[in-house]
Design goal:
The complex is a heterodimer. Chain A folds into 2 domains: 2-44; 49-278, MetI-like fold (Orthogonal Bundle), CATH 1.10.3720. Chain A contains 12 helices and no strands. Chain A has helices spanning 2-44, 47-51, 64-95, 100-113, 117-129, 137-162, 165-173, 178-189, 191-206, 210-213, 233-241, 246-278. Chain B has one domain (22-285): 3-Layer(aba) Sandwich (Rossmann fold). Chain B is built from 11 helices and 11 strands. Chain B has a 7-stranded mixed β-sheet with strand order 1-11-10-4-9-8-7, sandwiched between helices. In chain B, strands 3-2-5-6 form a 4-stranded antiparallel β-sheet, with helices on one face. In chain B, a hairpin with a 2-residue loop joins strand 10 and strand 11 (275-281). The radius of gyration of chain B is 21 Å and the shape is globular. The chains are: A mainly alpha, B alpha/beta. At the A-B interface, helix 7 and helix 8 of A face helix 3, helix 4 and helix 7 of B.
Amino acid sequence: MQVHELRRKIVDRLFTIACFGATVLALVALVFILWSLVIQGIGSLDLHVFTQSTPAPGSQGGLLNAIVGSLMMCMLAMIIALGIGILAGTWLAEYGGRTPYGAVVRFMNDVLLSAPSILVGLFIYELLVRPFHGFSGYAGAVALAFLATPIVTRTTEDILNLQPHTLREAGIALGTPQWRVIRQILWRAATAGLVTGGLLGFARISGETAPLLFTALNNQFFSLDMGHPTASLPAVIFQYALSAYDDWRRLAWAGSLIIAVVVLSISIIGRFMTREKFKP
Amino acid sequence: MTTAAIDADALECIMQEPPSSSLVMEARNLNFFYGKHQSLFSVSLPVQRNAITALIGPSGCGKSTLLRVLNRIYALYPGQHCTGRVVLNGEDVLHEQKRLRWLRKRVSLAVETQTGPDPIEHDQALRAGTDLARLRARVGMVFQKPTPFPMSIYDNIAFGVRIYHRKTKAEMDVIVEKSLRRAALWDEVKDKLHAPGLGLSGGQQQRLCVARGIAVEPEILLLDEPASALDPVSTAKLEATLLELKKEFTIVIVTHNLQQAARIADYTGFMYLGRMVEFGPTNGLFMNPQLQQTRDYVTGRFG
């Protein structure tokens, strides 16, 4: 009896230690990454990073073209993703979610949610780059939209399902048509959640490299024209980090730090907003 | 506890109805089904104009279901259906639903087979859809939990009005003030009309929902246990509001609170196992119930 109890206690203790150890391992790795990123990145950050475009090796320069390119493509991608994602998520939650077709759509969306981004890049390459004979920022934006749309769709459906049923009935009971209940009551009640979905999507795509290599390629010069190859932070980091030039590698560190800070703060804002909204 | 001994099919039914000339709405022989499960059995409910009609009975007896038939909010859910007759001011509002469902089927079928819908039928179906929304505007509803919309107090009231009427700012101001006054909420919110409705207390939110419901001037206002989430002070205010409102509106209220029914209702119906067991003037039903089940329930011996 006592041996049995002892054994149970030891197993319990060992399991707890294993869980604790795994957590520490993950946290140490994360802290280490962030630490080296901050140390290396801070030293390379200066005003030029934000005011000048990518330089030739050995001359002074910054990341302006890459930052602007990334912003343009991510913005356009989010406009597409929010438009499609919110409508699709709303359809799943309010109209067709319980039909067999709805189940298929939800399943496909979940598949897309975890699709390898390089496949999305190749797909858009075949769809938009080859037929039009050239890489472009638009193709890049569409590829990013492909990655963000499933996230927005998912969060939209989840958030709408969280809205109390009585809210829909109260709207309907006033004689409101369903589309008006959705647009003026449900979407409004779910605003924080919808914004969070958008932020999560944005955070996901702002660090994506693979789909951009096949679509937007890169551009050494500052340009606002998305009809041509467009620079982006991840692509520049990819190129510069692998280069042999010290100043290029420093710029890659600076770019990495910028992306990390942006993604981290967006995630924190997203978490904060959902927590505030759904605290019981 | 005599529940187990009762044979549901053997339940008697005693109806002491108000004079038929005073009725604004009549439900007759309603049978209601959640899928295959029947939860109303040949239920009738006469609703007297400018009076409060209360529905009482143990949980699951079909009170709320009956209420949800009257404005056909149940039609939102596939698999729920109802037979019988609901007449609102001489117009059969339940019968129309069958036509609507049939037309919907016709239209969706026509669209699916790509032959294009018959333009006349299509038009009728659309109008029937609008009629359903209009019916709900004529039969307002307030729920157990307060459900203010996520907008300002002012917009909560204006929301329903804007759906069917184009009003100027000044006209809308008048409607909002009148509705809030009638719901006895005006004095508490007149200085913060543009603050969010969700910022009010529970009792105020419930009166806001009442104000929102009467702003569209419904013929009947249905209330589903409106005071169950409120404290006694808010409940008393809500009851006073309802007594005031019955001068202009007709009210049907579902309540678990027997004293509440006794205090405010003119007519009371006792429901049990999906049947309307006894219906009559409130005083008579509470002081001198005709049937054993009613007597047991109103004296608190079961349920």
